[in-house]
Amino acid sequence: MDLTADFFTLFQLPRVFRIDTAELDARYLALQGEVHPDRFVGAGDAERRRSMQWATRANEACQTLKKPLERAKYLLTLAGHELAAENNAAMSPAFLMEQMEWREGVMEARVGGDQHELEHLRRRLGADMRARYQTLAQRLDDQKDYPAAAESVRQLMFLEKLRAEIDDALAFLDEAEG
Amino acid sequence: MPLFQISEPGESAAPHQHRLAVGIDLGTTNSLIATMKSGMAVVLNDVEGRPLLPSVVRYRADGAVEVGYAAMRWRAIDPRNTVASVKRFMGRGRQDIAHVESMPYDFVDAPGMVRVKTCAGEKSPVEISAEILNVARARAEAHLGGELVGAVITVPAYFDEAQRQATKDAAKLAGINVLRLLNEPTAAAIAYGLDNAAEGIYAVYDLGGGTFDISILKLSKGVFEVLATGGDSALGGDDFDQRIFCWALEEAGLSRLSPEDAQLIMTRAREAKEFLSHHEKAPITVKLGRRAAADHAGETPETTIDLTLDAETFTDISRNLVDKTLKAIKKSLRDAGLQAEDIKGVVMVGGATRMPQVQRAVAEFFGREPLNNLDPDKVVALGAAIQANLLVGNKTGDDWLLLDVIPLSLGLETMGGLVEKVIPRNSTIPSARAQEFTTFRDGQTAMSIHVLQGERELVSDCRSLARFELRGIPPMVAGAARIRITFQVDADGLLAVTAQEQTTGVEAHISVKPSYGLSDDEIAAMLKNSLAHAKDDALRRALKEEQVEAQRLIEATQAALKEDAHLLEAQEIAAIEAAVTRLQTHILGDNRRQIALAMDDLAFATQEFAHRRMDQSVKRALAGRKIDELSDLDDHLHTRTEKEARS
User: What is the CATH number of domain A88-176?
Assistant: First the structure.
């Protein structure tokens, strides 16, 4: 095992999308328990530097594998399938239309300060995304259809961004009240 | 001078070899020193049995220095040479310090950090803090009977780069080996968690004299994991005194007061606040105008304020202060992706949490009684002592892992005065992140790198941490160079930045030094404003983007003119140049629509030119000659879209 090992190898987890997140947490903490700089406070410079590199790597690995979208992107990269996210022409027109409708809905609710509507949209979006993540899981783990998985990822990138926008709008309303 | 060695993690120290380590809470008003004695964390008192070390330093003309209670006596008599609250100046420039005019000190603006001119010469806040730490170290060594191996020093969770670095430097100056800089709420969580074998998600509510921190932590077997931290560093117990003060003036119908009278009422206000922690009503009785009457007989009559402040009124007049803390809690919960009901317990830290209305509000917000089983003044120092003991490897049977986060996002300036976040706030440290950037102009050989801290989108709204330059980039067309900028934050929350051009390996490196810093007020305000101004930012951001785009268009047009003017008639050139000039004028303004229109005009004016250039290129291509421009254009587009995809 060295610093350049891939994140799945680092945590000794199978290289799949459907990971056991509890297991990930446990492996992460176990690794940090060994490498964290707090364990090397009295050590020499070189060891301390190494400790920081390892702890940093463990944090990066855990963050990447913990978030489903990041994990999917990482799996695609490992599979040698670059995301080609710039190629938005590959997005289906139906999806893009749907996107515009979502966006309009969010914009309207935000401008109108309609917290209820924003929450409603967020729930609907959440349900939609859950279904897409399931599809993504099938494409990655069962079918190993990477081009199709890449399409799911591209769509989910849009949707995650949209969800973040809804969250920002909700936070803004929350902040403004009182 | 390595005083000890841990060759392997987990390797036990030789038996009976107890390493002397302490925790130091280097506070704004008071500092505390604690250590582990027979498995218990204890605060170390001074020779007179007092636990507090007032954070006050006095410089005497004979070169002697007084610290603590000895210095405090001189605050009124020798204010210029008696420095209090030096924590507020750490890592700060003169312009960063609020109310600098009303302070009795003779500030000297030095590059990076302000200095105080005393009879013993100019002193930097780092030196002044070092005097406090010196006394702390001496007290520890007197108690422990030996030289210290090291100390954990606590800092507010909101402390930025410059403030952390300054604190570490002060310790170095005091001859203290800093085992770790530890966030104050995290230290409290350690003390509480271990004492109560707590497991689950806990919040630490830390309301001190002048700052408010909130941290959300996950405590599980042997792990303290900070999930999110936030706060409002311009909010503390002092603000509650101020509310009572204002209320008293209004009730008594007073407006103009002598400084002495104002000070007197403020003192009574503070006493009333403390009295109300245990009583329903507090009397505020003040005899005013005494000195004035003596000095100018007949001019200012003596008056007596005789008021009663009840608990309910106090709650009313301080309600919005308490609400502010609740807002900060909400934000941190959101950052952690949690709800109030997910919190298993709320640990109360800081003297100001003694106020009943604070206790009630927190209880109501979380739907549970807050935890007050540890002394709110001492818990931070105790936690620091416990952590120090662990870090030097003294075995207590317990062993735990502490995972903390950075409080504010770190980023880089990109074109148009925008900030691109590289490491977002609440990232677990140590943390590293790399981002690739490219050159903006053809033949660009240097790139200026500006490191920033904050949540807002515009450079002008974030804190500047450092600027440095990457030189020696080989001349390439715009967008061809690949400059990888790496941020590394260590376990103390300190940042180092490296820049490297990928195709050639040219490198530049900087450790962010304490030459810049932002006031706690600024950090708090920055965080608060990042949401409040989100809309405003979006507009300004759009304008900036338009300006950058316009600048690109102008430069591309000028480069094309320089190269291929032979394809144009004189009047065609004149028309294009006129359109360029118009656009240049509009870029200076803040009307985004005007810029957009002028860009359209320029695009229109160059349409024919573009066709002719393309024809020329195609002809060359057909002639079998390599067209650099074309492939370069491809590279450029590729780089940009890659970056867009990442964001």
Answer: 1.20.1280.20
